[in-house]
Specification:
globular; 76% helix; mainly alpha; 233 residues
């Protein structure tokens, strides 16, 4: 019997497309179910933003829970090797959450102000729930595994849908969610998936110029240093 439900390796690259498709279906079905009602025509009232405020406060509570994970394993009286691994997982929960919070909050509130605060609230809630599951999925098998990608891809999907909905509103002065609903709701999961694919493009190609410079610079520095063996005695 395999160690993991999907095989012997904790993480397989082949799992990524499945996680991406699953995430697109989850967010797509959510958008279909909630509908595009509540589209902004002017500036939303404070009452319209209550849901987004709730999501933001929920994120704050989650953040301190993650800091609690760090405290727990810093003080835990367990095997030292296990403690080191547990601390690393707790730290990654905090670190990854910090890395993703900037784009999340930017698109969450921009979408709420300019597109649809109701949709922002629903997708924001899904984001916080899946983000809360990040260290749980990370710790489930004691290391990074395919399970972590479920949480991560749902987070990416929420961020990139909100991102492109904002871009669409600025370019077309219309709500992408509403226009897709009018054209046929079956298009929504497809467009959600294409939105998610933006992260793959940015990871692979957007990083290329800076990654190339970094690699060349590191190689230059390594070659420039005088080898220890050639230093005078």
């Amino acid at each position: 019997m395999a160690k993991y439900p999907w095989g012997e390796q904790p993480f397989t690259m082949s799992s990524l497309p499945s996680c991406m498709i699953f995430s697109a279906i989850v967010i797509g079905v959510t958008l279909i179910g909630t509908g595009p009602d509540g589209t902004v025509t002017g500036f939303p009232s404070p009452k319209d933003l209550h849901g987004v405020v709730g999501v933001t406060l929920g994120w704050v509570c989650m953040w301190y829970a993650f800091l609690g994970n760090q405290i727990t394993f810093k003080m835990a009286d367990i095997d030292e090797n296990q403690k080191t691994t547990a601390k690393f997982i707790a730290d990654r929960g905090v670190g990854n959450t910090m890395e993703q919070c900037i784009p999340f909050f930017l698109v969450l509130w921009l979408h709420a102000f300019f597109v649809n605060p109701g949709t922002s609230s629903v997708l924001g809630l899904i984001y916080v729930i899946s983000r809360y599951l990040y260290p749980i999925f990370y710790g489930l098998y004691g290391q990074f595994s395919n399970m972590v990608e479920i949480s991560a891809q749902i987070n990416y999907t929420v961020i990139m849908w909100l991102f492109w909905a904002i871009v669409y509103k600025c370019m077309k002065d219309s709500d992408l969610h509403m226009d897709l609903t009018k054209s046929g709701v079956i298009l929504i999961p497809l467009v959600v998936f294409l939105s998610l694919a933006t992260t793959t493009v940015l990871f692979m190609f957007g990083s290329k110029p800076s990654a190339t410079v970094i690699a060349n610079g590191v190689a230059w520095e390594a070659a420039y240093k005088t080898p220890l063996a050639s230093l005078p005695e």
